[in-house]
Amino acid sequence: MTIAYLPGPPDDVPPYEPWAGEPEVLAEAAAAGRRAAEWIRSLPAPPTPRPVGTWIATTLPGAVEAATASLDPAQCDRRGPDGRLIEGTAGVDAGTTSTLAIVPCVLSDADWLTPDQHLRLLAVASIITGIARLLADDPGTAILHGLVARMCAILDHATRPDTPGLAPEIEHKL
To answer: How many helices (H) and strands (E) would you count in the chain?
Structure first.
């Protein structure tokens, strides 16, 4: 069997040009990430020192800040010179993505946190990985149509200390 790949882009591909409003959107994402990281750092510590408590207090906020500060729409999905699809990362490295991906697994050991705090931590990890995926899949649409800005607003809402918690009937079931 012979595999023939489509020809890649020519060597004279123009350099990446930022989308209108891109610097402002990326600055807002970085600021929202810093605010989310501060909220995570403000969460109560476990009654007795635990590795998961240290992870939530130090590693997770660092990953949140790193992910939002490193967003790069130029690192989007594209074809390589050999014609193969290269999945973009939107500038978020694999280690940071992995840290955000294990949040649901780690929360089962964070029994000193309230169900509301668990949901908010899940929301933070999901929103940030979602922003990166939006930028990797279609940066123009994500930036020009306000999808990243909307996700940043949701991130701010999820980490706002004065946001009402879960309804009592939902919290009771958790």
So the answer is: 9, 2
